[in-house]
Amino acid sequence: MAKKQFLRWSLVSLFLLLVIWQVLAQATTPATTLDKLNVRGGPTSAYPVIGAVEINTEVTIIGRSSVGDRMLIQAGDVRGWVATRYLSWADTVGLADIAVTDEVVAGIAADAQAAPTAAPVEGAAPASVLEGAGTPGTVLSDKLNLRSGAGSSFTALAQLPINSAVLIEGRNSIGNWLLINTASGRGWVASRYIRWQISEMPLANLPVTGEVIGQPADAVTAQTAPVPDAGSAPAPTESQGKVIAASLNMRVSANRTAEQVASLVRGTAVAVEARNQIGDWVLVNNGAVRGWVSTRFIDFNTGVELASLPVSNEVIGQPVTSAAGAESNATSPLAVSGDVGAMEAQLSAVPIVPVVTARTIQLYQAALRAGRNPQRFTKIGDCNSENAAFMKGFDWNNYNLGSYGSLQSTVDYFSGSFAQDSVAGKVGYSAVTVIDSTWGDPKLCKSGEAPAYCEIRTSNASFVIIMFGANDISVLTPERYESALRRILDLTIQAHSVPILSTFTTDPSLGDRWAKALQLNLITINVAREYDLPVMNFWQAAKVLPSAGMSGDNAHLTTQSGSTIAFDGNENLYGFTMRNLVALQTLNAIRQGIGG
Question: Long-range contact list for 198-203, CB < 8 A, 24+ apart?
C-alpha cells in the first residue's frame, strides 16, 4: 500500500514539475545578440545604461514593451532592456507570443526627472475630478515633465505627479507624444507615461496636432525643419551624432541596394536631417556630402529623438518630394462622376501597390498592444476572397514565384494565414452583409456579433485584406456602398487590426456595369485616403488581362488551375493569378514598412 502511495505521489510530483517546466519555458525565449548592445534600466533610450552585452551573446528574453521595439532580457547577471532589432530568436516565436511587461530595472527615464513646478492654476479642478473635452487618462510616472511641444527639447512647463488625472486632446503624427489638459494646464507628455482605455480610444484615432503651447497656430509650421535642396551639403553646424561602424556606406536613398555616394569612417560627426517612414534609415551630412545611412550605425547625441525627425523620401540628385507625402496618403478626393473616361484616368493614376504610411504603422502598433498576431492576416470579402484560388496555394506549397523570388520571405512571414477560411469572406457576401450580425456563424460568432468583427476576433489577425464589388454592383447604390465600407473600416480599426483595401475589376465591355464599377472603386480610393489606409489598385493591374480578368459569369475572376499559383506569365492571363501577385506584393511592402 505504501509503495502504491509513493508511486502515485511520485507521478503527481513529476507531472507538476513538467507543467512548471513548460510554463517557465513558454514564459521566456532564448535569443542571440546581433551586435554589442547597451542594456538599459527601462524600455526606452531615456533610461540609464546599466550594462552591456557582446555580439553573439546568448540571452533570455523575459518580456517586451507594448510596442515591441524593446526587449527585457537576462544575460548572466545582467538584466535589462535592449532594442529588439538587435536580437535574433526562433521563427516559431512571434512578437505577440512574448509577454508585455513594464518592469523598470533601474533608474528613472530622463523625461520623468524633476522639472520646474508650475504655479497652481487658479480655479483648476483637482486631478481626481478633472473635467472637460478629451479622453480621460492617468499619469504612470512621478515627476513627469509637461512640455510646450512634442519633444524633449521643448520647455518644461510643469511637473505631474504619478496617478494624476489628465484629458488627452491629441497626439503628434508618430504617436509618441500626447497633448493633454491637466490641473496644471495644457501641454505635451511622452505617450508611454499615460494610461487610458485604448480599446475605447485607440492611439491612431486621436486627432493629430502640431500645436506648441504659447505660440500662435500659424507659427506651428516653423517647428518643422525644411527639407534641404537636393545635392546640397551644408556643413553640420551642430553635430547630432557620430558613426559607430568601422566603415559606413552612405547611399542616395534609404535602401541598401541604392547607389553608394561615400563611405564614412568610425567617429565621423554628422548632422541628422531626416528619417524614412519607419526610421531604419536617416539622411545625414558631414559637411562635405549628404546621403542615407542605416540608423543602427549612428550614435545619436543626447536630446536627438529619431521619432521627432522630419520624414523624407528624398533621393539624392533627384527633385525633392515633400516629406509630408510620406506621412499620409491624403489628397484631394477623386471625382465620382458619370464621365467614364475621366473616372478611368483617375483610377489609372493610383499606384497598384500602396506606400506604407505613418498611419499604417500606428495602427499596427495598436494591434500589437492589443495582442494581435503580427504575422497573421485575414480576408473580408465575397466569393473572390473565399475561392481556393486566392492565396491558399501559398500555404499548400502549390506555387511558383518565378521571377518574384524575393517575395518568398513574405510567404514565410505570413505562413498559416493564406489558407485560413474566413467567416467574413463568403459566396454572395456584400459590404453590407459582413456588418450584419444576422450573417454571423453561430458556431464561431457571439450573439449579436457581425461577421467582420467575429473574423478578426477569432483569427487574431493584425491585417485584414478587404475587397468587395462583384455583388455590390448589383445590390447596392454608391451611397450605400460607401456607408457600409466606412462601417467596415471603423469596425476593423476598433478591433485593433489594420485594414488593407482593394479595388476590384469587371469586364469593361459591360457598359453600365463597368461605369458603376468605376464609381465604387473611386469611392474605395477616396475613403482609403480619408482614413489614410493602404489600398491596392487591383483594377489597374487587371486592365492588361483578357476581359480584365473576369469570367463569363461576370462575378468570378478567371483562374489557371484550381489553387495553383504560378508567376510564370500566367499573372498576365488570369484574374486570380494577378490578384495573388498584387496581394503578395502589398503584404511584402507592408511587412517591410513595419520592419517585419
Answer: 198/366, 198/369, 198/370, 199/370, 199/496, 200/135, 201/135, 201/168, 202/363, 202/366, 202/493, 202/494, 202/496, 203/171, 203/175, 203/362, 203/365, 203/366
Instruction: Name the packing angle between helices 358-369 and 575-594 (round to 10°).
Output: 80
pLDDT of residue 325: 34
In the predicted model, what is the mean pLDDT of residues 259-285?
81
Q: How many CB atoms lie within 10 A of CB 2?
A: 6
pLDDT of residue 22: 42
Question: Reduced to 3 states, what is the DSSP secondary structure of residue 55?
Answer: coil
Domains 241-316 and 346-594 share a fold: no
Task: Judge contact between 504 and 522, C-beta under 8 A.
Answer: no
Q: Scan for cell 482605455, then name that residue.
A: 197
Give the span between the Cα atoms of 223 and 232, in whole angstroms. 21
> How far apart are the C-alpha atoms of 165 and 299, rounded to whole Å?
36
From the options 3.40.50.1110, 3.30.365.10, 3.40.50.2300, 1.10.10.10, give the CATH code of 346-594. 3.40.50.1110
Alpha-carbon distance of 468 to 431, in angstroms, equals 6
Fold for the domain defined by 110-216:
SH3 type barrels. (2.30.30)
pLDDT tens digits for range 543-580: 889 999 998 888 889 998 767 899 988 888 999 999 99
What type of residue sits at position 285?
N
The amino acid occupying position 168 is: I
Architecture of domain 26-104: Roll (2.30)
- Please provide the average confidence, as pLDDT, over all residues in the chain: 79
With cell 543602427, the residue in question is 296
Please write the tens of the pLDDT for every residue from 199-237: 567 666 778 788 888 865 443 333 333 333 333 333 344
Q: How many helices (H) and strands (E) does the chain have?
A: 12, 27
Per-residue pLDDT tens digits for 308-363: 667 777 777 654 333 333 344 545 677 787 788 889 998 988 999 998 888 888 88
* Window from 44-48, 51-55, 94-98, 149-153 with minimum mean pLDDT: 94-98
Nearest to 66 by CA among 448, 331, 388, 364: 364
Taking the CB of residue 431, how many other CB atoms lie within 10 A of it?
29
Confidence (pLDDT) at 203: 65
Q: Tell me the C-alpha to C-alpha distance, in Å, between residue 541 and each of 347, 387, 572, 580, 590.
A: 11, 19, 9, 11, 18
Q: Are 166 and 219 in contact (CB under 8 A)?
A: no
- Residue spans of the domains in the chain: they are 26-104, 110-216, 241-316, 346-594
- Burial of residue 38 (CB within 10 Å: 0-12, 13-18, 19+) is middle
Name the CATH topology of 241-316: SH3 type barrels. (2.30.30)
DSSP assignment of 198-236 equals: TTTS-GGGSPB----TTS-GGGGGGGSPPPPPTT-----
How many Å apart are CA 65 and CA 42, to the nearest integer?
9
